[in-house]
Write a structure and sequence with these properties.
Elements (H helix, E strand, L loop, with lengths): L1 E4 L6 H13 L5 E6 L5 H14 L3 E7 L3 H11 L11 E11 L2 H11 L2 H4 L5 H6 L23 H6 L5 E8 L2 H10 L7 E3 L7 H10 L10 E6 L7 H13 L3 E6 L5
Parallel strand pairs: 1-2, 2-3, 3-4, 4-5, 5-6, 6-7, 7-8
Helix pairs in contact: 2-3, 4-8, 8-9, 9-10
Length: 261
Amino acid sequence: MSLRLDPYDLTDIGMDCVERVLERSKDLQELKVDISALQELNQQNKLARLLRGQSKRLTALSLEGDSAHEWIPKAAELCPARCDLPILRGFCLSCPKPFKVPHPFVQWIVSMVSPWSRVSALMPYAQWFATQPSPMTLDNVEELFQDTYFPPLLEIAEMWMPLMDVYLKGLEFEPEDWKRIIAALDLSTLETLNLSNSNFSQEQLTTLIELIPQGTNPVRRLKLHLYHTDLVICPSTITLLRKLAEKAPHIEIDIYNPCDS
């Protein structure tokens, strides 16, 4: 049994009803949550309620909204590490307008898209957040990612599921931050990687090719969506795409940039 939940129109009473139904639904195998308009405080509150009660059951989480500088800190506060969502298979961050992600939050995104082998070494966040004043803002988030680690939990390791779908739409990163995110992704298990409406460019395509391990043994075919990015189709880009096809034939790239036509 599966459920896709969009709580946008739900009142507090409606959220109470949903929580009671979820509590009784012991056989629920897939719980997918889509929360839009996160610039609105009531939508952030709904996200908080669902994460507090259902984080260990979520199989997909999609977050979207304007004014990302307001809700991304809130999302990072509510779910500071991927270990909080151990069976997550789909993760989406989407901004209707381009949003340049501040450097401190890149580490949070890296944590959210990383496989267990990396996450087990990237988990200071949950304990750290428990001691911090709320809400988090861009002013105090610099302390977010200190080099204090706690050991991986056996229970989480046994539950862990790799991500299949990652969407980072409308987000812009510095080149070094792009490199960290690309390096964190497990391209052997992903089925969808959507980086549309971003500043992904030829430099990031080069990084992607360089970071793909030789002899990668993919579990499934990967579809890479690059709509409306900074990747310009030119002879040097075509050369890079050929290199990618040779090194990782399981990756299929879907590109559409109107400026190229």
